[in-house]
Amino acid sequence: MAKNQTPIAVVSFYRFVDIADPDFEWLLDELGLGEEIDGRWTEAAEPPFRRMRVRVKNEIVTLGRPDIQPQRHTGEHVLPAEWNCLISDPNTLLIDARNHYEIEVGTFPGAVDPQTDSFRQFSKFAYELAAGGRDRPVAMFCTGGIRCEKASALMQELGFSKVFQLQGGILNYLDTVDPEDNRWRGECFVFDKRVAVDRDLAEGGYVQCHACRRPLSSEDLESPDYREGVFCPKCINELEADRAARLEERRRQVALARQRGEIHIGAKID
């Protein structure tokens, strides 16, 4: 961020509501922020998204279960101030409801990694977990809380009677818990250009591979298997030749634009 430049405020929030006939007219006529919204505020040196997109989807936060309605039933919310006490109980099963590539960046010590590449795969993990027993209390967490709304509802459906979720997710925990009580280890992956934020919610030390979208550490960037904009150590053996060629051409065009003093990616179009 340039000296004396005002940082960009970034807020993340959600609310599950019933919409009989969702369309963009509904957005114009009905969507409002007159009620209090429980949002998470962070800062960024530049706009973290290139554009705003509004889409109508059959399922928000795709679990493959559009019938699950968190506004009707979901796991019990636990305030960040009470979270450490809950997960200190050795009988509590602590589950990180995020994807594996997010968990690699940071998590709570002792948390179970469901080994998912997308949230849709969480259902398989939950069913397998339930088959092994449903007696232990379950504590779940994710980035801002929205995935846990649905994941905890699924766990309840599968017969887990004590299901808890971290209110406001990791971002709320990092924002409100005193540093000396903070049990988070590493950084927190976020789905924007910052890639990750640290324990102080400042922009972290990761970048994102353009090919596979996975977060890359400084060690990954030093690897001979990393080529900016084309591949990284995590996807070099997965990338098909034709896509690698397209990415290589994109990299060349970006470099040429930079030499001309132009912006190739994210340029404004009149």
CATH topology of the largest domain: Oxidized Rhodanese, domain 1
Query: How would you characterize the largest beta sheet?
Result: 4 strands, parallel
Tally of DSSP β-strands: 12
Strand order of the largest sheet: 3-7-6-4
What oligomeric state do the depicted chains represent?
A: single chain
Radius of gyration: 21 Å
The CATH H-level superfamily of the largest domain is: Rhodanese-like domain
Mean pLDDT: 88
CATH first level of the largest domain: which class?
Answer: Alpha Beta
Please trace the helix and strand order, writing H or E for each element. Answer: EHEEHEHEHEHEHEEEEEHH
Shape: globular
What amount of the residues lies in strands?
Answer: 5-15%
Low-confidence stretches: 266-270
Q: In which range does the helix fraction lie? A: 25-40%
The domain tally reads: 2
Secondary-structure class: alpha/beta
Total helical segments: 8
- How far apart are the first and last residues' alpha carbons, in Å? 26 Å
